[in-house]
Design brief:
By secondary structure, this protein is mostly helical. The protein is 64% helix and 0% strand.
C-alpha cells in the first residue's frame, strides 16, 4: 500500500476547500508524493515493465467494448462483467460467501441501472444514495458501495459531456474527454453531495470501516466531500480517486484492461488478469481495513510472485495451480481477505471503457 505521508494528508485536508486552482495544484503534488512513497519492489517494477512490452493484437476490441453504450446499459454491463469473472477471493458464478452469492450481484446490477439512466438530472450524491437504497431494497445487503462511489462521478461526467457536445455530433466520446469532464464534476461537489454520500454509507454499512478522528462516517457529514475523501485517501483507493481525478483508473486499470483484451480477446479473462496485476501493484484497501496493513502486504507479495509466474502464461489464470492456491488462501478465515476494493476499481474501469469510444 502506498501510504501518504502525514504532512501530505494534512495539506489535503487544509486546502481541500480553497478553490479550483489550489485544488488542482494540490492534486498534482499529492500524486507526486504518492509515487515517491511507493513501496513497489524492484521485482514488481520489472514485472510491470515486462508486461507493458507484451505484444498486443491490433484487432478491434471484443464485444461489448467495440461500441459505446448508454450509461444505464454500461453500468449494468460493467457490474455483470466484474462479478462474472472468476476473480481471486471474490464472489463469482462458481464461488459464494456465506451471506451472498452471484445472484445478489446480478440483482444489484438490475436495481441500479435505471437510476444511472437519470444521471443528467441527478447530482453525484443523489446517484449514490438512490443506488444504495435500490440495492438494499432489492437484495438486503451491501454488494456495491465502493463501486457506486466510483460510478456516480463517472456517470455524471459522461452526462455532462454528452450535453455539452455539438448537437450534430453523434460520434462516441473518448476516455480523455471523460476525465476532463470528471475533473469539473469533482470540483463542483457540494455539501448536499457529502451529506447524501454519508447517508448512503450508513445505509450500506460496509465492513471494516473503523473510526476516524475527522470526517468519520458515523458522525455528522462535513461540508466538503473532497476533504472527507482526502482523509481516507492513504488507505482507500476508492477515496483516492476523488483526490487524484481517477488517476489509477485512467492510467492503470483502463490501459491494463485494453492490453489484456488485446492479448486474450476474452473479457472475463482480461478482468481476472487485471485483478492479479492490481493485487501485485497495491495492497487491497478492503483487506487493509479488515485484516490490517501487514496482512494486506503479505497478500500483495504473494500476488507479485504469482503474477511473475503466471501472467506470461497464455493459459487461463483459473487453470493455473499457483493462482488456485492464492484463491484458496484469500477465501480462508471467513473471506476476511476478500479483495473488494480491487473489484470496485475494475468495475470503474469497465464503466469508463463502456461509455467511451473503442478507440480510447
Amino acid at each position: 500500500m502506498k501510504l501518504l505521508p502525514n504532512c501530505t494528508k494534512r495539506l489535503l485536508v487544509e486546502h481541500a476547500c480553497r478553490g479550483r486552482q489550489t485544488w488542482t495544484r494540490l492534486r498534482v503534488s499529492t500524486i507526486k508524493r504518492i509515487k515517491q512513497t511507493s513501496c513497489l519492489s524492484p521485482t514488481t517494477l520489472e514485472l510491470y515493465a515486462g508486461m507493458s512490452n507484451r505484444s498486443v493484437s491490433a484487432a478491434p476490441l471484443p464485444f461489448p467494448f467495440d461500441r459505446a453504450w448508454t450509461i444505464g446499459q454500461a453500468v449494468e454491463l460493467a457490474c455483470l462483467l466484474e462479478v462474472s469473472a472468476a476473480k481471486l477471493g471474490n464472489v463469482h458464478p462458481g464461488a459464494s460467501f456465506s451471506d451472498m452469492h452471484h445472484s445478489h450481484f446480478l440483482a444489484s446490477a438490475l436495481a441500479i441501472s435505471p437510476i444511472f439512466d437519470r444521471a443528467q438530472t441527478r447530482s453525484v450524491g443523489n446517484l449514490v444514495l438512490d443506488a444504495v437504497r435500490a440495492t438494499r431494497s432489492m437484495v438486503g445487503r451491501n454488494t456495491n458501495l465502493g463501486t457506486l462511489l466510483l460510478f456516480a462521478p463517472l456517470a455524471k461526467a459522461h452526462a455532462v459531456r454528452i450535453a455539452n457536445r455539438h448537437e450534430a455530433s453523434s460520434a462516441p466520446l473518448a476516455c480523455n474527454s471523460l476525465r476532463a469532464s470528471l475533473e469539473n464534476v469533482l470540483e463542483q461537489l457540494t455539501s448536499d453531495d457529502c451529506r447524501n454520500v454519508y447517508s448512503a454509507i450508513c445505509i450500506a454499512a460496509p465492513g471494516g470501516l473503523g473510526t476516524r478522528e475527522q470526517a468519520d462516517v458515523a458522525g455528522p457529514a462535513p461540508d466538503d466531500l473532497l476533504a472527507a475523501m482526502a482523509e481516507a485517501a492513504d488507505v482507500d483507493a476508492v477515496a483516492r480517486q476523488y483526490v487524484n481525478n481517477y488517476e489509477d483508473i485512467f492510467t492503470r486499470i483502463v490501459p491494463w484492461l485494453r492490453q489484456e483484451l488485446g492479448v486474450t480477446g476474452q473479457p472475463l479473462e482480461a478482468v481476472c488478469r487485471v485483478q492479479l496485476r492490481w493485487l501485485a501493484y497495491e495492497a487491497d484497501g478492503l483487506i487493509v481495513r479488515k485484516a490490517g496493513l501487514n496482512v494486506a502486504r503479505e497478500v500483495q507479495q504473494r500476488a507479485q510472485r504469482i503474477a511473475q509466474e503466471c501472467l506470461q502464461n497464455p493459459a487461463p489464470l483459473a487453470h493455473q495451480p499457483c493462482v488456485q492456491g492464492l484463491d484458496m488462501y484469500l477465501r480462508s478465515d471467513g473471506h476476511r481477505l476478500n479483495p473488494g476494493t480491487t473489484a470496485d476499481l475494475i468495475a470503474g474501469g469497465l464503466l469508463a471503457m463502456l461509455i467511451s469510444s473503442p478507440a480510447g
